[in-house]
Amino acid sequence: MVRVPEPLTRLYPKNLSRQFTSRLRSPQLTSRIGRILGIAVAVCFVTGYLSHAIQHPPGWFYWPSRPVDLYRVTQGLHVATGLAIVPLLAVKLWSVYPKLFRWPPFRDAVQAVERLSLLLLVAAALFQVTTGILNIALWYSPMSFFFTTAHYWTAWILIGSLAIHLGVKLPIIRRALAAPHRPVQTEGLSRRGVFTAVGAAIGLITVATIGQTLRPFAWLSVLGPRDPRIGPQGLPVNQSAVAAGVTAAATDPAYRLELTGPTGTRQLSLADLAALPQHTAQLPITCVEGWSATATWTGVRIKDLVAAVGGSSDASVRVESLEANSLYRVSTVAPPHADDPLTLLALRVRGEPLDLDHGYPCRLIAPNRPGVLQTKWVHRIEVIEP
Amino acid sequence: MTTSRSTAWTRRLLVAAGVLAAAYGVVGVLTDRSVWLPNYARYMVTVLFGHDLLVLPLAIAVGAVLTRWLPRWAKPVVQGALVVTVTLTVVALPLVLGYGRRPDNPSALPRDYPRGFAICLAAIWLVTAAVLVVRGLRRRSVPDPTPRESA
Questions:
Q1: What is the pLDDT of residues B8-65, one digit of tens each?
Q2: CA within 13 Å, CB half, A158
Q3: pLDDT tens digits, one per residue of A39-90
Q4: Is pLDDT of A14 > 90?
Q5: Domain presence at residue B86
Q6: Among candidates A86, A154, A167 on the partner chain, residue whose Cβ is nearest the Cβ of B25
Q7: What is the CATH number assigned to the segment(s) A11-217?
Q8: If you write DSSP's letter for every residue of B41-104 in order, what string do you get?
């Protein structure tokens, strides 16, 4: 009979989970970290769903045009909270790691199903955090799927499996949170020390990135994926004219804007547009990736264009770009935004004609809307009556 | 009695709502063609196993080795600094690698990220060093009140 030497027997499945010796791991730590993590996931889910609903509005959904900066706040919060999840999730998963090696893996069918739901929960959480980080770093090649829809559906898997997890663990969580605080006998970090470290990590990550949307922090945010001060005309750009393939069409002197409404169709040259009453608005360009930058835009009010072709104040407006193949070639401006006096077909930014990368000859800019819907290189506007 | 009954109902409600939401997401992933299922599944499996069987055990092992020979008063501080370092690295790495840069758009990833990452690391470890100095000095002036058991 062969005897396995002692160090190797530690790797037996039934002995494996005993190799983790930190006394810091406890339901108290897991529940306290989990409570914060749960709130962060909920914030991401709500702000993320909001952003999705603004872009693909369900029938019941209503999104106002004011306050001007609301979407900027919700989307900035979505990305900042998502980044804050990194240290929370890391410590949460560390605190329950030995349970992964529990032996036998399950005792009955119910426990087997519960453990499978945990697999789903952990996978979905890791998926959401890593794809979110890759997306704001514009590094798409590791994600050989469409980020937007995958991130959306996985959010439902995450929030669902989190609810299942809370339901299953509720008695343990309640007991752990109600238990009197007893210091942990440990050589290393105390429980309070863990929270200090997680807090420091969240603070540092936030300060290092939040300047991409909070301009006063721009100088401090050395890891901001964007700088609201950098770009053509001091304003960041998500898609350049070259990438969109519109350079020739946008600079063609024969450019005409086609404006269609109940009373007919008009062709407007850039000079015609400049001859119409011009208005100025201070509005942010707010990207779904969490950066934003405010600028002073000047152009023709969309509501004036609507009225010029006989549209009413209840009309929606379909705005089309010169771009040939893009998911965001067309955007529909809902009545609250179309009728808002701040919504412009902008010809100028910061007193200069728009840079080609900002949508020359003209672009849509409306309050409280994601940047992907602020159509650039506009060549057709259609007024749709309800 | 009533608390336990309401707890039981809360649990059932959470599980039922969770099953519905998760099922909605799973059906979405399976039916939405733009998700591109094989690649999605491959990515899912990679992050799950990559974290559970590679990144986390590696972090635990490296952390254990790096703090093994530290004195008791220094160990928790260095452990905390390592937690901050690792989690910051997760956020910073894609920016430092810079694969998202595009020649046609200088406003995308406009900063010097290796420098920014180095500044953050310097900040973490300068603060850590300062805390260690304060702890070390305090320890010298006031002897540790808790008697240590002989090992």
A1: 999 999 999 999 999 999 999 999 999 989 999 999 999 999 999 999 999 999 999 9
A2: 27
A3: 999 999 999 999 999 999 999 999 999 999 999 999 999 999 999 999 999 9
A4: no
A5: yes
A6: A154
A7: 1.20.950
A8: HHHHHHHHHIIIIIIHHHHHHHHHHHHTTS-TTTHHHHHHHHHHHHHHHHHHHHHHHTTT-BTT
Q: Do A189 and B22 count as a contact with CB atoms less than 8 A apart? A: no
CA distance linking residue A137 with residue B36, whole number of Å:
21
What is the DSSP code (8-state) at residue A370?
Answer: B
**Number of Cβ within a 10 Å radius of residue A166:** 18
Q: Do B81 and A204 touch (CB under 8 A)?
A: no
Domain membership flag for residue B46: no
Res B2: pLDDT: 61
Is B114 contained in some domain?
yes
CA-based nearest residue in chain B for residue A198:
B84
Q: Which of A149, A127, A131, A36 is nearest to A79 (CA)?
A: A131
Q: Which residue has the tokens 């109940």?
A: A262
Contact A22, A186 (CB under 8 A): yes
Q: How far apart are CA A101 and CA A119, in angstroms?
A: 13
| Conformational region of residue A78, where left means phi above 0, alpha means psi within -120 to 50, and beta covers everything else | alpha
DSSP letter for each residue of A32-78 = HHHHHHHHHHHHHHHHHHHHHHHHS--TT----S-STTHHHHHHHHH
The first and second tokens of residue A33, run together, are: 């970290």
| Choices 3.20.20.70, 3.90.420.10, 3.40.462.10, 3.30.2130.30: CATH for A234-384 | 3.90.420.10
Does residue A352 sit in helix, strand or coil?
strand
- Pairing, β A316-321 against β A330-333: antiparallel
Position A26 pLDDT exceeds 80: yes
Question: In degrees to the nearest 10, what's the CA dihedral of A350, A355, A360, A362?
Answer: -20
pLDDT score at A3:
73
Asked whether the beta carbons of residue B47 and residue A204 sit closer than 8 angstroms, the reply is no
B113-141 vs B75-97: helix crossing angle, rounded to 10: 180
Q: Domain range for residue B100?
A: 70-151
Which chain A residues have a beta carbon less than 8 Å from that of B13? Answer: 167
CB within 8 A of B47, min separation 6: which ones? A123, A126, A127, A130
Contact residues on chain A for B130, CB-CB shorter than 8 A: none
Chain B residue closest in CA terms to A174: B7
Q: How big is chain B, counted in residues?
A: 151
Which residue ranges make up each domain of chain A?
11-217, 234-384
pLDDT in tens, A61-74: 999 999 999 999 99
What is the rounded distance in angstroms from the CA atom of residue A194 to the CA atom of residue A186?
Answer: 12
Q: Pick A142 or A188 by higher pLDDT.
A: A142
Q: Does a structural domain hold residue B77?
A: yes
Separation between Cα atoms, residue B41 and residue B19, nearest integer Å: 20
